[in-house]
Design brief:
single chain, alpha+beta, 8-stranded mixed beta sheet, 5-stranded mixed beta sheet, 13 strands, 22% helix, 37% strand, globular
């Protein structure tokens, strides 16, 4: 669970400073200089929870392993979830990551993963509320690990419960070929990343609920695109997902 890794004492002033600063950045749409103190892991979790309370419903979570300690976790806000191919209000430059997600289809239980979840091709939208190029990992995590939304692509209805390690994929956008051929899920296992999230998430931001998606890491690194670009991708077995970025 996320709370199992929390330090005994959290600095309430650091949590409040970051929460208010990030809320203001989201309201104005302007990047801010990060506060001076670096949050701890537990403080970053608390900052996320405080921000998400104002953002509203949660559509899912992102996860990433760290060399030591509990994984990076961050909620994905429902108000920034988009259907495949629709126009997406975006900042001047937006990151777009191709990922495999798992959608929870029923209340979470001890049932096999293959009965609880179904895989879906998605694009994660990336933006930062902080300025600067040398952010600390815990500053990024406080900022929802730079998440700015999710595009829901096709579901793999015929899934037999097998893992996704290396897939065949193609991704293009802004007259560039981003990916064309074999692409590996971070760590080599989408199911391992899903389980990592489930093992540590606990009740953070409500815990995982039916209809929510857990995304398992980028197949393409972090390419950036301008408002006005259309990004398209295919993964063998899934079909196509498309993000049409437009100015906010």
């Amino acid at each position: 669970m996320a709370h199992a890794a929390m330090e005994t004492m959290m600095r309430l002033d650091v949590i409040a400073t970051y929460s208010e600063a990030l809320k203001a950045a989201r309201t104005t749409g302007k990047q801010i200089v990060p506060p001076g103190e670096i949050p701890t892991y537990s403080e970053a979790i608390a900052i996320q929870a405080a921000i998400q309370t104002e953002l509203g419903a949660v559509a899912g979570f992102k996860v990433a392993a760290r060399p030591e300690g509990p994984p990076i976790l961050a909620p994905i806000s429902a108000h920034r979830v988009f259907d495949n191919g629709v126009a997406i209000p975006s900042p001047n430059m937006a990151g777009v990551e191709l990922e495999i997600a798992f959608e929870l289809m029923q209340p979470f239980s001890d049932a096999p993963i293959g009965e609880l979840f179904r895989p879906r091709l998605v694009m994660e939208l990336v933006d930062t509320r902080f300025s600067g190029d040398s952010l600390d990992p815990m500053q990024k995590m406080s900022d929802m690990q730079l998440n700015d939304g999710l595009v829901l692509g096709p579901v793999l209805d015929s899934w037999d419960g097998s893992d996704f390690g290396t897939v065949q994929a193609r991704m293009t956008g802004a007259d560039r070929v981003i990916l064309d051929g074999a692409a590996e899920v971070p760590g080599g296992s989408a199911l391992a990343n899903l389980q990592l999230c489930l093992d540590h998430l606990g009740d953070h931001c409500g815990g995982v609920q039916p209809g929510q998606h857990i995304i398992t890491g980028s197949l393409c690194g972090l390419p950036w695109f301008g408002a006005g670009d259309v990004v398209q991708a295919q993964v063998a077995g899934f079909g196509e997902v498309k993000a049409a970025l437009v100015p906010r």
